[in-house]
Design a protein that fits this description.
Layout (H helix, E strand, L loop, with lengths): L11 E3 L8 H8 L6 E7 H5 L3 H6 L9 E6 L3 H12 L5 E6 L4 H5 L10 H14 L4 E8 L7 H10 L4 E8 L10 H10 L4 E4 L5 H11 L3 E4 L8 H12 L8 H19 L1 H15 L7 H9 L3 H13 L1
Parallel strand pairs: 1-8, 2-3, 3-4, 4-5, 5-6, 6-7, 7-8
Helix pairs in contact: 1-11, 4-6, 6-7, 7-8, 9-10, 11-12, 11-14
The chain binds flavin mononucleotide (FMN).
The site of flavin mononucleotide has 24 residues, from β2.
C-alpha cells in the first residue's frame, strides 16, 4: 500500500490514542516494528494560538518509527495553518480526526460531529492538502448513529478532496467504545473508494488482524486498545501475517523490563513529577492478566517517585 509516496513496511498500525500514544510510548512501540504510528490527537486551534503544550506534542523523536501527526478541529483554515506547523516536525502524513466521540469535542462541531457534514469534511481535506506537501489522511467512524451511517459518503468526499488514505473505525459515535465494531462498513468503504482503507475496531490479536484483512479487503489494520501495555501485539501480528506462526506472549520478566524502560522514557521526556502519575495506568496495563498483579496495583498507584515505582516493578519480577 502507498500513502502518497510513503510505503509502510507492513500493514500493522497503532491507533492514535489521547493520553497514551505520546512520544515515550511511541518510542516503546517502535521497537516492535509497526508499519505506522500516530500521535495523540492535537488541537488545531491550540496550535494556531501557539499553545506550548500542544506545540510540544508535535515533537517527534529520532528513535520512533514512521509517525503520522493527528489534528482535530473543524475550521478548514485553522486546520490548514496547524498542519503547516505540524509538517515542519517531519511526520509521514497529517491525519484529521473525524471520529472522536467525546461530548466536549462533538458539541464544538469537531471529531465525530464532522461525520454529519461530508461536504465540510471535503473542504477540510482540500484546505489542509493545499497547505502541506505531505499526504493528508482522515480517520472516521461508521457514522453518527445507526440512523446516520455516513462512512461511505464521507470517505468519497475526502477522497475527492485529495485524501491519501482513510481509516474506518467500525463503530458509530453513539457507540463510543462499547458494543462490537462493524467490519462490514469497512468492507463497504473499501469498495467505494480507491485510496487505501485502514480497518479499525476490535483487532485484539494476530488472528483478528488476519480476519479483518480477509473479511474487509482493507490495506492495513489499526490496533488501539489491545496495544495498551502490550506492544508485543505489533511484532506478533506482523510475524503471524508473514509466516502464519503464532509467537508466544511475553514472559513476566519481559513485561516488567519493558514497563521499567517505559518509565525511564517517560521521566526523560516529561520529568518525574508528571511521568510517575502518567506511568501508573501503563504499569497496570503491562501487568494485566498476570496472576497476583492486583495486590501491586494499589502500591503502583501510590508511588510518587521513579525509584519507588521501579522498586515495586522489581519486586513483581521476583514474585
Ligand atoms: C484511550 C483512548 C484514546 C483515544 N484517542 C484517540 C485519538 O486521540 N484520536 C483518534 O482518532 N482516536 C482515538 N481513540 C480511538 C482509537 O484510535 C480507536 O479508533 C478505537 O480505540 C477502536 O480501536 P480498538 O477497538 O482497536 O481499540 C482513542 C481510544 C482510546 C481507547
Amino acid at each position: 500500500m502507498l500513502i502518497g509516496s510513503f510505503r509502510p513496511a507492513n500493514p500493522v498500525f497503532v491507533a492514535p490514542m489521547a493520553g497514551v500514544t505520546d512520544r515515550p510510548f511511541r518510542r516503546i512501540l517502535s521497537r516492535f516494528g509497526p508499519g505506522l504510528l500516530f500521535t495523540e490527537m492535537i488541537s488545531a486551534a491550540a496550535l494556531v494560538q501557539r499553545n506550548r503544550r500542544s506545540l510540544r506534542m508535535l515533537e517527534l523523536g529520532p528513535d520512533e518509527g514512521p509517525v503520522v501527526i493527528q489534528l482535530f478541529g473543524k475550521d478548514p483554515n485553522v486546520l490548514a495553518e496547524a498542519a503547516r506547523l505540524a509538517e515542519a516536525h517531519g511526520p509521514v502524513a497529517i491525519d484529521i480526526n473525524m471520529g472522536c466521540p467525546t461530548p466536549k469535542i462533538v458539541r464544538n462541531g469537531e471529531g465525530a460531529a464532522l461525520l454529519r457534514n461530508p461536504e465540510l469534511c471535503g473542504r477540510i481535506v482540500a484546505a489542509v492538502r493545499a497547505a502541506v506537501r505531505v499526504p493528508v489522511t482522515v480517520k472516521i467512524r461508521k457514522g453518527w448513529d445507526e440512523q446516520e451511517v455516513t462512512a461511505v459518503e464521507v470517505a468519497r468526499a475526502v477522497e475527492a478532496a485529495g485524501a491519501a488514505a482513510v481509516t474506518v473505525h467500525g463503530r458509530t459515535r453513539q457507540m463510543f467504545y462499547g458494543g462490537k465494531a462493524d467490519w462490514e462498513i469497512i468492507r463497504r468503504v473499501k469498495e467505494a473508494v480507491s485510496i487505501p482503507v485502514i480497518g479499525n475496531g476490535d483487532v485484539d490479536g494476530p488472528q483478528a488482524a488476519r480476519a479483518m484483512l480477509e473479511q474487509t479487503g482493507c490495506a492495513a489494520v489499526m490496533i488501539g486498545r489491545a496495544a495498551l501495555g502490550n506492544p508485543w501485539i505489533v511484532s506478533r501480528t506482523v510475524h503471524f501475517l508473514q509466516t502464519g506462526e503464532l509467537l508466544p506472549p511475553p514472559s513476566l520478566a519481559e513485561r516488567v523490563a519493558l514497563a521499567r524502560l517505559h518509565l525511564s522514557y517517560l521521566v526523560e521526556d516529561k520529568g518525574e513529577r508528571i511521568a510517575v502519575p502518567e506511568m501508573r495506568k501503563h504499569a497496570v496495563w503491562y501487568l494485566k492478566g498476570l496472576p497476583g498483579a492486583n495486590r501491586f496495583k494499589d502500591r503502583l498507584y501510590r508511588a510518587t517517585t521513579e525509584a519507588e515505582m521501579a522498586a515495586i516493578l522489581a519486586e513483581i519480577a521476583e514474585a
